[in-house]
């Protein structure tokens, strides 16, 4: 047994290792190694065999591991507890800071209504054209619109005006000229919407839908509402 282990530890023959010190290139070392190891008849063709390209050697596996990334989103309850999506009374917003937003909204609502609505023309609510205007107004985004309360179930809300900062499903969050943030319930008010020189009255109950859902909803024709 000891003799066998001694044979394993013996150095390689000189004919196998003599090309190590003379060849710096690994490819040339392999060619020399094969030429010294193989018979003379096969050693001459070793270099030609190494130059051959194999088709399947280029086709490497491109399979990637499907690593599942656990994206933990906040639930609605956690968002409410953290106060996300709410504008507090101490947010520092001023009425003058919202005037550029109101100007952008005026351009936006004019582009939404297009040729259907012109400030210089008079429109009868019974006309078919007015129904199209009404549909577009109900689907519009009211962030930046200037409104005032003309009727309400709560008398203390009448006369409140300001620019809409937040539009939720059931409320309008507005900033008045006194820089105070107020919350208006939609179901309990009739608002006056200011479009340049014109004013339009809208029942807040018509807008008691989330803004994202309101854009795709088709509203039914209704001329009278109960406040």
Short description:
By secondary structure, the protein is of the alpha+beta class.
Task: Lay out the secondary structure.
Blueprint: H1 2-8, H2 14-17, H3 26-37, H4 40-43, H5 46-50, H6 55-58, H7 76-82, H8 99-113, H9 128-139, E1 146-152, E2 161-167, E3 171-175, E4 181-185, E5 189-195, E6 198-203, H10 211-214
Antiparallel strand pairs: 1-2, 1-5, 2-3, 3-4, 5-6
Any overview of this molecule?
This protein is α+β, with helices and mostly antiparallel strands. Helices cover 33% and strands 16% of the residues. The protein contains ten helices and six strands, in the order αααααααααββββββα. It has helices spanning 2-8, 14-17, 26-37, 40-43, 46-50, 55-58, 76-82, 99-113, 128-139, 211-214; strands spanning 146-152, 161-167, 171-175, 181-185, 189-195, 198-203. It has a six-stranded antiparallel sheet with strand order 4-3-2-1-5-6. A hairpin with an 8-residue loop joins strand 1 and strand 2. The radius of gyration is 40 Å and the shape is elongated. The termini are far apart. The mean pLDDT is 76. Component of ribonuclease P, a ribonucleoprotein complex that generates mature tRNA molecules by cleaving their 5'-ends. This is Ribonuclease P protein subunit p29. It holds the Pfam family RNase_P-MRP_p29. It is found in: Nucleus. GO terms for molecular function: endonuclease activity; hydrolase activity; ribonuclease P RNA binding.
């Amino acid at each position: 047994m000891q003799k066998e282990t001694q044979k394993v530890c013996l150095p390689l023959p000189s004919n196998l290792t003599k090309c190590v010190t003379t060849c710096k290139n690994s490819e040339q070392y392999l060619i020399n190694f094969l030429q010294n190891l193989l018979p003379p008849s096969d050693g001459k063709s070793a270099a030609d065999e190494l130059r051959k390209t194999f088709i399947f050697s280029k086709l490497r596996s491109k399979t990637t591991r499907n690593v599942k990334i656990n994206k933990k989103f906040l639930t609605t309850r956690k968002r409410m507890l953290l106060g996300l999506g709410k504008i507090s009374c101490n947010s520092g917003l001023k009425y003058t800071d919202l005037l550029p937003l109101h100007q952008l909204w005026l351009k936006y609502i004019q582009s939404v209504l297009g040729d259907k609505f012109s400030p210089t023309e008079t429109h009868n609510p019974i006309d078919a054209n007015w129904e199209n205007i009404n549909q577009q107004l109900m689907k519009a985004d009211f962030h930046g619109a200037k409104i005032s309360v003309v009727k309400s179930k709560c008398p203390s809300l009448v006369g409140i005006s300001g620019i809409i900062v937040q539009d939720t499903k059931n409320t309008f969050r507005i900033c008045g000229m006194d820089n105070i943030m107020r919350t208006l319930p939609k179901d309990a008010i009739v608002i006056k919407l200011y479009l340049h020189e014109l004013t339009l009255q809208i029942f807040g109950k018509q807008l008691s839908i989330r803004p994202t859902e309101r854009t795709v909803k088709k509203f039914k024709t209704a001329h009278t509402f109960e406040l």
